[in-house]
Design brief:
The protein is α/β, with parallel strands linked by helices. About 35% of the residues lie in helices and about 20% in strands. The strands form 4 sheets. An 8-stranded mixed beta sheet has the order 1-2-4-3-5-10-6-7, sandwiched between helices. Strands 14-15-13-16 form a 4-stranded antiparallel beta sheet, covered by helices on one side. Helix 4 crosses helix 11 and helix 8 crosses helix 11. The longest helix is centred in the last third of the chain and has 25 residues.
């Protein structure tokens, strides 16, 4: 691990938690522990415990702010925690935890990471935070976490709603991405293994969508293959590429079972919106007889895998911040001059069919008054520029979110919001 951030994630507060209590009257109170930690992994942190934990951390550290960014259908808060630099020039990293409510290990890793960074006193971590803004959504699907379900309380998979934005949860995340423009979006999940072809401790995957800027795509691939997976393996965990079955003997790919380029999935939406996106998944299934007999051991292995991988992501952020900033800035400006194709299908490992490419995109799309009234909020949440007119609205393609605008408004796109009338007068 890079020496500048040796204490990050698993070290900064661990020493404080393990240290003997001091008798000094002025001693600071010990950092709080999650319900997961307090029970040594026997159960997951409850939502009331999460609220108390975050409130304690927020009050104890001037380096952290906590806010509510939305409310679920069952009136649970969706919260955002901000740690580190307040400077606009900092590198911004967004951690999104437990989009699927029955995948809790990422949430536990996010909660302890918030505390460890907030309570850190060592110079290397403080230097890192001085140049980095860490945004954390600890529980992106509070209703699903309460019910231990993949979906939210409306039975919607939030990770398939990042284009339509029908759920309160996806809308809250879209607003954070629009307002903070994170250079990195790191999405923590879990998966069920299929032994012996698909059973690594950790799987990761970058944006495969072909509308992702090539430089952003390259950084996301580097994040996965040169930082997150190697860091997990250094910690003793096996790793692979999400969605790819491999031969247990040769480790060669056998077939792809998931991980396509559809734009409504967060890791792909992140790439289209010019962030270095990464999906990480830890294995839910017990690995050993001991883990089968003692679920706490399995739970701890899942969380420890997330923490090891997350350390790699922080190292990536610290070591490559100049390259990351250059890639995302270039991508955000490219739409103002781009005249290239917009892809409606395919992926970085799956060439699109001719019908899946708009070779000569229009100048923009006209919307009727009814169409605009129906989707103007979604356009705004996506950060897509639109111009209101007496005849409805006009959405130009000469804008930062050029490719996204076409995916939202062209009737050939799989998940378009409405069918705009193409403007070909440019």
């Amino acid at each position: 691990m890079h020496p500048r951030i040796r204490a990050l994630v698993i070290g900064a507060a661990a020493a404080a938690l393990a240290a003997p209590a001091t008798t000094t009257a002025q001693a600071s109170p010990a950092p709080p522990r999650t319900g997961f930690e307090s029970t040594n992994g026997a159960r997951w942190t409850t939502q009331p415990e999460e609220q108390d934990f975050l409130t304690t951390v927020d009050r104890a550290s001037s380096n952290i702010t906590k806010s509510t960014i939305g409310t679920t259908n069952q009136n649970r808060p969706i919260q955002l925690v901000r740690i580190g630099s307040q400077q606009r020039t900092s590198t911004t990293m967004l951690l999104i935890c437990s989009q699927h409510g029955d995948e809790p290990s990422g949430r536990e890793a996010c909660l302890t990471t918030v505390r460890d960074l907030a309570y850190a006193k060592d110079k290397s971590t403080l230097d890192f935070l001085a140049r980095t803004t860490i945004l954390v959504i600890p529980t992106a699907n509070p209703d699903g976490r309460a019910a231990n379900t993949r979906t939210n309380s409306d039975n919607v998979d939030i990770n398939r709603d990042h284009i339509a934005l029908k759920t309160a949860e996806a809308r809250a995340m879209a607003a954070v991405i629009r307002d903070h423009k994170p250079e990195i979006i790191y999405d923590l999940h879990e998966y069920g293994a299929t032994s012996p072809y698909y059973d690594k401790d950790l799987l990761s995957l970058w944006p495969r969508n072909l509308n992702t800027n090539t430089h952003v795509h390259a950084e996301a691939h580097t994040l996965s293959e040169s930082y997150v997976r190697p860091r997990a393996e250094d910690a003793g965990f096996s790793s692979g590429i999400y969605g790819i079955w491999t031969d247990p003997v040769t480790n060669e790919p056998v077939k792809q079972v998931a991980g396509d380029g559809q734009e409504r999935i967060l890791r792909n939406t992140a790439g289209i919106k010019h962030s270095v996106g990464l999906l990480v998944e830890t294995r839910v299934d017990p690995l050993t007889a001991d883990e089968r007999n003692n679920p706490a051991l399995n739970n701890k292995r899942r969380v420890e895998t997330q923490l090891a991988a997350l350390t790699g992501a922080f190292t990536f952020t610290d070591e490559r911040r100049g390259r990351i900033k250059a890639a995302t800035t270039q991508a955000r400006l490219a739409g103002f001059a781009d005249r290239g194709p917009v892809h409606l299908g395919g992926a970085d490992n799956d060439p699109p069919e001719p019908t899946e490419t708009i070779d000569n995109p229009p100048c923009g799309y006209h919307l009727s008054p009814a169409q605009y009234a129906d989707i103007k909020d979604e356009l705004a949440l996506h950060g897509v520029v639109s111009h209101s007119r007496t005849t409805g609205a006009y959405v130009p393609l000469r804008q930062s979110q050029r490719n996204l605008a076409a995916l939202l408004l062209d009737d050939r796109a799989a998940y378009h919001l409405t069918t705009g009338r193409p403007d070909t007068t440019c």
